[in-house]
Amino acid sequence: MAISFSEALGVHESALKLRARRAEVLANNLANTDTPGFKARDMDFKAELNRHMHAGGNRSSVSLSKTQAGHLDGSGTAGADAQLGFRIPQQSSIDGNTVEDQVEHAAFMKNALEFQASFMLLNKRFKGLSGAISGQ
Q1: Which one, of 135, 127, 123, 111, lies nearest residue 22 by Cα?
Q2: What's the average pLDDT block by block, 10 residues per block, for the chain (136 residues)?
Q3: CB 48 within 8 A of CB 18
Q4: How many domains does the chain fold into?
Q5: What secondary structure does DSSP assign to 54-113, as a single string?
Q6: Rounded CA gap, 87 and 98, in Å?
Q7: What pLDDT is recorded for position 59?
Q8: Rg of the Cα trace of the chain?
């Protein structure tokens, strides 16, 4: 009997990839806190996860061809094509920067906690699969 990892792991694999992508976006916002004219970006995690799951999981929208046997197949790029929106600031800035330091820190920390929760759930799934394979 074959094990389907996409069915066994559920949504957690895609969630981890999207959370990592969101962490990159939020970190970029924080890095540009003092950049005049910088516009803060973010993604709607729930909408992106739904879009990714309905699009068929890990299927990539870009077709790649392998020219050498050692090349990677290019799958597993969740979040790379995530739809990013602009964050609307609560307080306008004179220099046109829309990054609000406290808002970005809070969003980054919440995202990190949710990443950790998804990682723990995925780890438990792997332990369960490992136990099933070894007959425990």
Answers
A1: 111
A2: 63 86 95 94 89 64 64 56 86 91 96 93 84 79
A3: yes
A4: 1
A5: HTTTT--SS----SSTTS------TTTT--EEEPPPSS--TTS----HHHHHHHHHHHHH
A6: 7
A7: 44
A8: 19
* Residue 135 domain-assigned (yes or no): no
Q: Looking at residue 61, what is its pLDDT?
A: 42
Residue 80 included in any domain: yes
Residue 120: domain span:
10-59+72-130
Q: Residue 37 region, left (φ>0) first, then alpha (ψ -120 to 50), else beta?
A: left
Helix (H, G, I), strand (E, B) or coil at 51: helix
Would residue 125 count as lying in a domain? Answer: yes
Structure tokens belonging to residue 5: 């990892």
Chain centre to alpha carbon of residue 111 = 10
